[in-house]
Amino acid sequence: MQRVPIPQGRRTRGLTRRLAAIVLLAGSVLFFAGGSAKADFKLYVFDDGVLTNTFSVASGGTIDTGEFNTTHFHIGRTLAPGVDLGIVAQSNSPGTPARAFINQLTYLAFNTGSGVHTLTVAASDVGFTQPAGTLVLRNAVNVTWGEGGSGTSTADNLSFTSYVNTLNKQFDSDVDPTAPGQVGNAASGNFASTTLTLNANGLVGTTGSANSPDVNFSNSGLPYSISDMLTLTLNAGDGAEVNGVSNVFPRAFATPAPGGLVALATCVPLIGVVTWLRRRRPTML
Description:
By secondary structure, the chain is mainly beta.
């Protein structure tokens, strides 16, 4: 397969200029991204299937893209003077005994073009060593349609799929970001969640959520990777705020998810709880 070259771009804005927080809730336990690894935590952005932007920080870190534009989308919004957020992604590689995760939150994706266009955001981190033993992959997603003064229509929809690779392959080695939707199989160490799909009802401000059934796999103690792919299709003038999280739990800890409640508890961001005073500045490759 011919690979699309990753364009050179600008550095994302320094996070010391922003105040923001994402508190991730899973059940009754509060987790923050932590840990470190040598490999990169990467975020890929596609406009109608064409790779437009790549962002990267050290594994276990936080990516904040700031506001930016692609051919058909404006991504991000200003929450307060000097506080502008685009896509924020977190990883807690190498994980904890209770949970490993990556999370991606798009504060606003607005279709500035004419007609229907598709935005795809893919995230990937490697070097997860915890939890160990028999594990489950479970993902969750929530969306608010027509955010930030934008519109919505019944043509708007999103899908979200999560992946674990027990061979610790980076996303662009196993799930090729230049061809969104092409995945490996269990023989290549790749396990995929059920794809979650949400459709808009055309009413501005409507929130939808979903969580996937558990996918069982075993961790032999070697590092593994977690990746996910969120695809948002919007009509002209429409927008949405979307949050997706890919979780790995110990099988003994994980319980069947009660409908959309887990998705909301896991995904909904709480803005303004924590001040981000120090952040690494991610490089846009």
